[in-house]
């Protein structure tokens, strides 16, 4: 048995109880305040402020190059802001590494799927669950790996190699792995990309179930506007690095600037 598989096999499939550890979970709000990031002469993100609290599903949309992924990279510690503050539950994350951000309570998925192809679905999730047990179990209750797989539509797939799964299921493996950290805030970067209509409708239910059962906040980016409009309670719209609108799906749908940005047609966002 390899060192890795020995470690993975040792992980208990039970749910630690933070109350037993004597630490009460505090409500956490992700707060982004006046954040900017430029690459050479290009402002990828300019003076953006927004929030996402536990229990909220917040959408982030904008045309190609609007700055959405850069903002997600800033929130998750992959990039450092040139200006502004990013905090979770009042604790600054400025300068925090991706690992620090994950331990602090921010988990994410990626635009281009990054599952461990040769590991099984269960092992992919266990990798993150190990981090959860080491660093977050005293802060927040989680679900067992089997419960997470069930919730995300992977029940029965645990022993399959992740790389052999169809695209939509690999996306679900990524989400399950992020959830295994029991995050305060879950960042989903284009989760519906490559999914057919039925799959993206199913994903709406999954995202809501995640919010309801984990109590985390969810920030979701997607180009599938039908999906974003249906899943989000609030939507932020970016264009050329700036936040140009913020509101409920109904408010954003009729916002003039948003309509102009989306090909100048109302039908694109309705
Ligand atoms: N590492 C980088 N180096 C140079 N420029 C970058 C880098 N990352 C992003 N940019 C630029 O920053 C701007 C915002 O890019 P970003 O990928 O954040 O947009 P996006 O809204 O996520 O786009 P898409 O929807 O196509 O993924 C673009 O002009 C992009 O070319």
Overall shape: globular
Q: Report strand order across the widest sheet.
A: 6-7-8-3-9-10
**Strand content of the residues, in percent?**
15-25%
Q: Round the Cα radius of gyration to an integer and report it.
A: 18 Å
Distance between the termini: 55 Å
InterPro entries: AAA+_ATPase, ABC_AA/LPS_Transport, ABC_transporter-like_ATP-bd, BCA_ABC_TP_C, P-loop_NTPase
Keywords: ATP-binding, Nucleotide-binding, Transport
GO cellular component, one term: plasma membrane
GO molecular function, one term: L-valine transmembrane transporter activity
Question: What's the short story on this structure?
Answer:
This is ABC transporter ATP-binding protein. The chain has 270 residues and is α/β, with parallel strands linked by helices.
Q: Can you offer a commentary on this structure?
A:
The protein is of the alpha/beta class and 270 residues long. It has one domain: P-loop containing nucleotide triphosphate hydrolases (Rossmann fold, 3-Layer(aba) Sandwich). It contains ten helices and ten strands. The strands form two sheets. It has a six-stranded mixed sheet, with helices on both faces. A four-stranded antiparallel sheet has the order 2-1-4-5, covered by helices on one side. The longest helix has 18 residues. It is globular. It binds adenosine-5'-triphosphate. The site of adenosine-5'-triphosphate (ATP) has 11 residues, from strand 2 and helix 2.
């Amino acid at each position: 048995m390899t060192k890795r598989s020995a470690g993975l096999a040792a992980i208990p499939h039970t749910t630690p109880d933070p109350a037993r550890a004597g630490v009460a979970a505090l409500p956490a709000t992700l707060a982004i305040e006046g954040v900017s990031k430029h690459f050479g002469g290009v402002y990828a993100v300019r003076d953006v402020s927004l929030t996402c609290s536990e229990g909220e599903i917040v959408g982030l949309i904008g045309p190609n190059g609007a700055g959405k992924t850069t903002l997600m990279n800033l929130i998750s510690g992959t990039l450092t802001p040139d200006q502004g503050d990013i905090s979770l539950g009042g604790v600054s994350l400025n300068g925090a590494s991706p690992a620090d951000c994950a331990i602090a309570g921010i988990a994410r998925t990626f635009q281009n799927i990054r599952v461990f192809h040769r590991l099984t679905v269960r092992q992919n999730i266990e990798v993150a669950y190990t981090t959860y047990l080491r660093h977050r179990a005293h802060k927040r209750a989680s679900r067992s790996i089997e419960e997470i797989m069930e919730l995300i539509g992977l029940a029965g797939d645990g022993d399959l190699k992740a790389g052999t799964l169809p695209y939509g299921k690999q996306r679900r493996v990524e989400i399950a792995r992020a959830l295994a950290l029991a995050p305060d805030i879950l960042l989903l970067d284009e989760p519906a990309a490559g999914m057919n209509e039925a799959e993206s409708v199913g994903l709406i239910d999954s995202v809501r179930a995640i919010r309801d059962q984990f109590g985390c906040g969810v920030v979701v980016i997607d180009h599938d506007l039908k999906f974003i409009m249906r899943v989000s309670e609030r939507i932020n719209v970016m264009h050329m690095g700036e936040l140009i609108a913020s509101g409920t799906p109904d408010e954003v749908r009729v916002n003039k600037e948003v309509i102009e940005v989306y090909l100048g047609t109302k039908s694109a966002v309705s």
